[in-house]
Amino acid sequence: MVALITGASSGIGRDMARYLASKNIDLILVARRKERLEELKKELDVSVTIVILDLLEEKNCYQLYEKFEKKKIDILINNAGFGLFGTFDKTDLERELEMIQLNVIAYHILTKLFLQKFERDGGGYILNVCSSAGFLAGPRLSTYYATKNYVLKLTMAIYEELRHEKSPVVLSALCPGPVNTEFNQVAQGKFKVDGASSRYVAKYAIDKMFQKKLLIVPTFSMKIGLFFSRFLPWKLLLKIVYKIQYRKERNED
Fold first, then answer.
1. How many helices and strands, by DSSP H and E, does the chain display?
2. In terms of residue numbers, what domain contains 15?
3. Fewer CB within 10 Å, N or C, the chain?
4. 144-153 tens-digit pLDDT
């Protein structure tokens, strides 16, 4: 088997590469940071192809697909993305548009093109790395939450279409809560509670993907939190999320 992973130079993407390699699955690793990918390649005992691309550029999404359109690929993992803390009236507009480009448009393009390829090829797996944020609205992290809502709901809708069509393609959405990655540094905030291990989340996600699970929520605490959030009024949920994000942004305990 061959897996293509975007955002593979760090965090969950890097640990997914390691876990897939341990299962003897060859890899195509996509990211901007060449040195990080080369370091990762050296530690893996499978065939690894490195692709240095910035998926903020829409044309690069098409270029990535065209590069492997005729090649054997069994798994696509859309993982590249970032967040940005702050109130909507003060966050940088250009940075937010970049986030939408990477978190939404790149996912949309690659999901559609590789889904069509996998259907022609007779099957495959697509794992979209979403977030528990995809179930909620996120004051002080509003654009990030909105992007994850888009990808999660898109993934769910396509899943149902594929189920009705009895498609051989498996579509899954990874929806973790806090994970120990570079997300905080990039988003300029800090989780109030300790995040889950990136290695644990990566292994859990891959295992559940192969079990054809639609919604993959790695930790028990997040499963409980999402379950009970269904019964809370929206305005109360907004107040709770606002308080959580406020503390993250100010690095408060």
1. 10, 7
2. 2-249
3. C
4. 999 999 999 9
